[in-house]
């Protein structure tokens, strides 16, 4: 019981800090105000960040249920605490301008999330199982790319002569490949919803100002949806044939 209380309290601390940083200010600025300082193309519309409500709600469900399973309980508990700590570190680094450290924190966070994610069975898509971590991995992978893109833009990176819209499409393509990998090899549809939700938000954010980026985001959204349908139908056929 004490573990559950400590985990719940640590999650509440992160949520409070997240709310302060998003809606009020931390170091005199909100999270979006910092992001909007530069013409960053790989960033979704503000409504996309409502996904955090779903993630936090799932984590509150996951906390009391994870202890009921005997396998990997310490790995999952310490992984959770470490992920909370690294999320807090990222927020402070982002708001205080330590972008290199924020990227390092995000990479370490993804490593921790993967360690918990892979402790579950490949087909475990329960809320009390790996589902919250599917959302967290998908979202943090996208925000890692966004943070790296912001860092490069801030330091006037030449992009090897490629334009910012083209690099954004490259980022979108890499993200799509990442999502498809987890859909086909881990049957993880929930992670794909994160990418679909974010890609639509990126298209909405760029609108007609960056038609190339908008078109690519919508096209890759359609690709993800099409492959999700294909994967689901394929799984149903295999289930029928195995009977």
UniProtKB/TrEMBL annotation:
- Which sequence ranges are marked TM in the entry? 41-63, 75-97, 103-120, 132-152, 164-182, 189-205, 211-230
Q: In the UniProt record, does the keyword Membrane occur?
A: yes
Name recorded for this polypeptide: Tryptophan-rich sensory protein
Query: Which keywords belong to this entry?
Result: Membrane, Transmembrane, Transmembrane helix
- Keyword Transferase set for record: no
* Organism whose genome encodes this protein: Sporosarcina contaminans
């Amino acid at each position: 019981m004490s573990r559950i209380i400590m985990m719940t309290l640590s999650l509440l601390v992160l949520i409070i800090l997240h709310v302060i940083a998003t809606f009020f200010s931390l170091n005199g600025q909100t999270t979006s105000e910092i992001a909007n300082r530069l013409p960053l193309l790989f960033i979704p519309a503000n409504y996309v960040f409502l996904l955090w409500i779903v993630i936090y709600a799932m984590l509150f469900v996951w906390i009391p249920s994870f202890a009921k399973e005997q396998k990997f309980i310490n790995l999952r508990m310490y992984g959770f605490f470490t992920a909370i700590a690294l999320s807090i570190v990222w927020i402070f680094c982002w708001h205080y301008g330590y972008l290199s450290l924020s990227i390092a924190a995000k990479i370490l966070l993804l490593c921790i999330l993967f360690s918990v994610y892979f402790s579950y069975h490949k087909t475990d898509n329960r809320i009390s199982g790996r589902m919250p971590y599917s959302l967290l991995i998908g979202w943090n992978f996208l925000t890692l790319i966004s943070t790296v893109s912001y860092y490069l833009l801030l330091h006037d990176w030449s992009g090897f002569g490629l334009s910012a819209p083209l690099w954004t499409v490259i980022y979108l393509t890499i993200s799509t490949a990442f999502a498809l990998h987890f859909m086909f090899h881990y049957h993880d549809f929930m992670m794909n919803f994160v990418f679909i939700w974010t890609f639509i938000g990126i298209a909405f954010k760029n609108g007609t100002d960056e038609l190339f980026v908008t078109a690519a985001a919508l096209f890759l959204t359609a690709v993800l949806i099409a492959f999700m349908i294909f994967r689901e139908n394929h799984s149903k056929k295999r289930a029928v044939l195995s009977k």
